[in-house]
Amino acid sequence: MSKKQLSKSVIERLPLYLNYLQEISDDKNNVSATFIAKELGLGEVQVRKDLAAVSGAGKPKVGYETETLIEDIKTYLNCNNVTNAVIVGAGKIGRAILGYEGFLRYGVDIKAAFGHHANDIIDIEAKKPILDLSEFDTYVRENDIKIGIITVPVAYAQEIADLMVKNGIKAIWNFARKALSVPPGIIVRQEDLAASVAILSCKLNAME
Amino acid sequence: MSKKQLSKSVIERLPLYLNYLQEISDDKNNVSATFIAKELGLGEVQVRKDLAAVSGAGKPKVGYETETLIEDIKTYLNCNNVTNAVIVGAGKIGRAILGYEGFLRYGVDIKAAFGHHANDIIDIEAKKPILDLSEFDTYVRENDIKIGIITVPVAYAQEIADLMVKNGIKAIWNFARKALSVPPGIIVRQEDLAASVAILSCKLNAME
DNA sequence: TAGATTGTTAATCGATTAACAATC
DNA sequence: TAGATTGTTAATCGATTAACAATC
Predict the structure, then answer these.
(1) Please, which residues have CB within 8 angstroms of residue B166's CB and are 6 or more apart in sequence?
(2) In chain B, which residues from 11 to 40 place their CB closer than 7 Å to nucleic acid strand C?
(3) Cβ distance B173 to B189 under 8 Å?
(4) pLDDT per residue over B181-206, tens digit each?
(5) pLDDT of residue B126 exceeding 80
(6) DSSP letter at B201?
(7) For residue B61, with 0-12 CB atoms within 10 Å meaning exposed, 13-18 middle and 19 or more buried, which class applies?
């Protein structure tokens, strides 16, 4: 499975294409890079290059077969293999993520959340267990968990990250506003929703 | 207020610096770019250049005054002026965001959420109203709302975006997986949490 | 003074855009 | 065939990194 390693910017555009293609796949059997570019407000050559990188099945005059393109992007993004994940932190954000079904679409299955003094509570809507942190080690090892999601307060984030690494978790999605220190080989993605909206407000302010 | 327009990449690093500086501000009166770079795992020159862009108050040998630097970044990010925001979509994600206090730290005050057939429900923990969508127009105009946050299902996203624009909202933070079409001058920030984790799982897969 | 750290100018790197030949 | 669209090679652009003189 020697997959071309694409640049970060390309990888971040792939979900965009995927969503759009899935949206139109019922109506259109074929689609051109030109068309996608116009619809998504991107450069035509950029789209063509991105698509060529994961697919390369385009035909002059007609464009790409929509279904094939969808499959190729999904394959690249690993959507068809399920990767298991757990959340540590059963507060509002943790529960909101636990209950959101959109992740499975990308092959990520969030199996459970862990909290303090929680014990086998089941999130009714999501039908997923919220377990006590003491069960973490066993659960992670027994359920082939690869991704850990941290939604605890800043003060505990590093400690939880250490716990995850200790139990063999290889990728961490961190919602705590704290730069984690992890051993090499562990992937960390920092998510700061507040910063996202700060940038929005900053741009807004710059426009006046 | 002619503020230098920094590049997207620089702006996205500012919150990172801000968090770290606030974390250490009690212990350290001065801090060097070299030190920050090492702690956050960034290039030394990059940090120095970023800081110079918003502050420029560094002194050879001692570095920057921590407090001044914090204030300069906050000024650039517009943290000290409050910008009002509302959420449309009172599902799990909408409520989670409504209840999260971290935004005020960046000067964004989320005043209320709107849902269908909701009427003056108050989110107990957050102490913020969840109102019916029919009250949207009046509320937005009367409360100087500048930012709109969309957490409704994909099918309604464009319609809500139009409603926001119609009522004078200038910046939209969109959690629906849909490329919005808005008039020029309106800022849209697309947020796709599922795609975020997809990229994580993709990298994880590429490593093996 | 000597050395750490700054700010700036030049070099490198990577990503986007432009140009164009190939092809269905 | 003609024309739309592809894939590729070269040119541009922007951001990061390296080098170094200035300074407290």
Answers:
(1) B137
(2) 32-35
(3) yes
(4) 899 889 999 999 999 999 999 888 87
(5) no
(6) H
(7) exposed
